[in-house]
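Researcher: I'm preparing a figure for a lab meeting and need a structural model of a single chain. I don't have an experimental structure, so a prediction will have to do for now. The sequence is pasted below. Please return the structure as tokens so I can convert it later.
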Amino acid sequence: MNGSAILARQHTPHKKQEQHMRATIIAGLMAVGFLAGCGGVEAPEEMSPEEANRIVEMATPGPCTDACDAKYYQCYYGGGDPYYCNSYRAYCISQCP
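Model: Understood. Here is the structure written out token by token.
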């Protein structure tokens, strides 16, 4: 063995040392985050039933989006170019009300 191989072998940490070091660093970062007030649970804001319904309607796809998805599936599974199919779907959805 040459000198650099011996030196590299002597300074290579063992697996348990690496795991312990990694766990210590993560625990330290988490402690700093908690002390700084990061990661705490906040109380949810009160919301009116009308606002809750509006959010649900926005998150639920409508008939236009369903039609765009149907065209996408026909294109993609019909052997179309995936790039074209994805681009057309994005365009189709952008035209939905």
